[in-house]
Amino acid sequence: MAHYDLFRVMIRYWTNFAATGDPNGSGLHECPACGPNCRRYMLLGGCHDTSDSMSYARSSR
Fold first, then answer.
1. Nearest to 11 by CA among 22, 29, 23, 27
2. Residue 33, CA atoms < 13 Å, CB-side half-sphere
3. Residue 13 and residue 31 in contact, taking contact as beta carbons nearer than 8 Å
4. N or C: which end of the chain has fewer CB within 10 A?
5. Do 39 and 52 contact (CB within 8 A), yes or no?
6. pLDDT single digits (tens) 9-38
7. What pLDDT does 35 receive?
8. What phi, psi does 26 have (nearest 5°)?
């Protein structure tokens, strides 16, 4: 994904979140709901993925 494309996706997530409280929208990958103890994150770029911090720590060894 080109930098400009990634920028456009991020703007759409933030705009949706600011307007509705929900970052998800048409044509975007689902961003799962999180609470105060949530340790999940979304990877955006070449691939879209939702993971947790422990799986990231395991995969980056």
1. 23
2. 3
3. yes
4. C
5. yes
6. 999 999 999 999 999 999 998 888 888 888
7. 83
8. -60, 130
Residue 11 tokens, joined: 């703007």
| Cα–Cα distance for residue pair 27/43, rounded to 1 Å | 16
Type of residue numbered 19: A
In this structure, the chain runs to a length of 61
Task: Using the structure block, give the residue that is written with the tokens 């975007």.
Answer: 28
Report residue 45 as tokens: 């770029």
Residue 54 amino acid letter: M
DSSP assignment letter at 12: H
What is the residue type of 21?
Answer: G
Helix/strand/coil for 57? helix
